[in-house]
Amino acid sequence: MRLCIRRMSFFAMLLVYCSLVANAQNADATLKQIFDSPKVRQALENLKGSEAQTIKEQIAICEIPAPTFHEERRAAWFKQRFTELGLKNVRIDQVGNVLGERPGKGGNGNGPVLALAAHLDTVFPEGTDVRVKHEGSILKGPGIGDDCRGLAVILAVARALDEAKIETAGTIIFVANVGEEGLGDLRGARHLFNEELKGRATHFISVDGIGDDITNVAVGVVRYRVTFRGPGGHSFGAFGLPSPVHAMGRAIEKISRFQVPAQPKTTFNVGKIEGGTSVNSIAHTAWMEVDMRSEGAPELNKLEAEFKRAVQTAIDEENKARPNKTPITAELKIVSQRPAGVQPADSPIVKTALAASAALGVKAQLTAGSTDSNIPISLKIPAITIDGGGGGKGAHSLDEYFDTTNSHLGTQRTLLIALGIVGLK
Prior knowledge:
Blueprint: H1 2-35, H2 38-49, H3 51-62, H4 72-84, E1 88-92, E2 98-102, E3 113-119, E4 133-135, E5 138-140, H5 148-163, E6 171-177, H6 187-196, E7 203-207, E8 214-218, E9 220-229, E10 233-234, H7 244-256, E11 266-275, E12 281-282, E13 285-294, H8 297-321, E14 329-338, E15 341-342, H9 348-359, E16 366-369, H10 374-378, E17 383-386, E18 391-393, E19 401-403, H11 408-422
Helix pairs in contact: 1-9, 1-11, 2-5, 2-11, 3-5, 5-11, 7-8, 9-11
């Protein structure tokens, strides 16, 4: 019996290996056929030659404020651009996503339907100075890489397909979606797959950020707002009452001592706290927002359970230390939740992305992240998030910058991956 298990294990490993090789070879063969097409070659050259125009659009996009939940102005701009590019059925859906379609010419209506997306929103509040400074190869401005770059890339791809008169077998739906950042909670992507494109989109690619990587591991996220409540009172006259601030402090101290695994990577953070009315008052309310993440769903569930225990223990300790007829209570409210998942490294969409990268001499790595792809991956729809090319640092900061050196490779790669999925007519 032991011998049989070993033999079966060996054959199973051999089958997996052969499958990996076959998938890689199929992806390479498909990309070679596409890469060798004269029209595709022309489109790639056009993208390189028009990168200055792509950069100009990237700047224009970035200078339209688009805080999460307030993406309307940028959405209106995209609706106009999608229309000018000749996309069909251009529309803004119920939650604010902008969509424009480039129908496939396959003829049977059963071809792949790729949603090629980038997100409209930024982490920066209303009133932020979003003007972009251009210094040589460097662009400086809040959101210039995340995700003004991705938005500019999908426009460039739509333009290149049209200029080179490339006909595809499958359909590409270009999407500028809302609600990717923070408490936006992927609401744009959720609506796409639960409503707008439900049962229609067969593949999804999000172009998000800068560089060359491919995100195929969807990091799960759960975020809580915890509101502590108590009787409140004068700091001297009512001394001895339990304090929501003190209870919250006890909870934060316990959270800070959590032990989490390095693999799968699991993290936690108390990102925001607020409470009280004055220095000489015992607070009647205090609240904190807590972010927990993991590449593995079981690990995230375990961390979440430990977090809940820590909050309850902190309340019990504060109430015991300051007994009162009106004890401290806490309300735990989930404010954001993103499912964990994996797009396997040997899946066709990942192999296509790696083959397209290799064809252009781009050294791509597979990475993990929390992106719009979390939603389709959780629904078993082939999906990845790809960087938009170029370089830079400082995402989510006022000092964010984008290096345009060879940034055209990101646009070219996006085109090749899209064509690798929908196919040429």
